[in-house]
């Protein structure tokens, strides 16, 4: 038998309505509509995601540590999980230079004034030869590190270092001074030079510079060797120091003076790239005291009198 399906009669107006329904409601009657899944793919972090907003305790910025006791500071740091600062008890030290003069040279009294022909001058020459034995051994030790070291030539090199260092001090060239002087001599040379003008000039050498003393020593390790050489300078130079107002405090730019100095130069012999630098000056005990610098102060009368300004007289004049 043939199964014949007979389409029901649908009016023309209803056909248009059915067509519109297909476009407006495209869901098939055979499919079931379900809700979409919005859960996170990793549920193990669900608790942490729930607690991602944490209440933060803002510290009281008005509190000052100076007004708090030690116990309050300790409890505050304990709340925040901070460790109290440890006092710094270590003392820094420098290995590129020594902090003193080892076996300093003792200048003979009256040096530079006695003639070699006189009895006292000949005695000084004899004492100088007696003290040379240790210096010869030290020079040999220096030559084991520096093959080209020569005492006569080094005296001229030391004089150039001496002149360049003092010229750098006059213009306050800190970078130049750090290359020419050691870490011990730098603060001593720069002390009390603020707001002052220094005029220094080297004129000539009255006697050729000569090496009078040499010593070597080691620090921490035997291989860490330092060498110190004392050079005698008898020169003529001028020095004038002005304060911040341009007033002369010490010396003169016109008057030249004869200066006898014993300058110590040091080198880190263990350092392959070490250089000779100005380390210190030896001031003998028999040297007379220097002339003190002229300083200006505010007069007590001017300081105690109050400043009076008469406005009426100024108005009348105007």
From TrEMBL:
<protein>
    <recommendedName>
        <fullName>Large ribosomal subunit protein mL45</fullName>
    </recommendedName>
</protein>
<dbReference type="GO" id="GO:0005739">
    <property type="term" value="C:mitochondrion"/>
</dbReference>
<dbReference type="GO" id="GO:0005840">
    <property type="term" value="C:ribosome"/>
</dbReference>
<feature type="domain" description="Tim44-like">
    <location>
        <begin position="135"/>
        <end position="283"/>
    </location>
</feature>
<keyword id="KW-0689">Ribosomal protein</keyword>
<comment type="similarity">
    <text>Belongs to the mitochondrion-specific ribosomal protein mL45 family.</text>
</comment>
<keyword id="KW-0496">Mitochondrion</keyword>
<dbReference type="InterPro" id="IPR032710">
    <property type="entry name" value="NTF2-like_dom_sf"/>
</dbReference>
<dbReference type="GO" id="GO:1990904">
    <property type="term" value="C:ribonucleoprotein complex"/>
</dbReference>
<keyword id="KW-0809">Transit peptide</keyword>
<keyword id="KW-0687">Ribonucleoprotein</keyword>
<dbReference type="InterPro" id="IPR007379">
    <property type="entry name" value="Tim44-like_dom"/>
</dbReference>
<dbReference type="Pfam" id="PF04280">
    <property type="entry name" value="Tim44"/>
</dbReference>
<dbReference type="InterPro" id="IPR051975">
    <property type="entry name" value="mtLSU_mL45"/>
</dbReference>
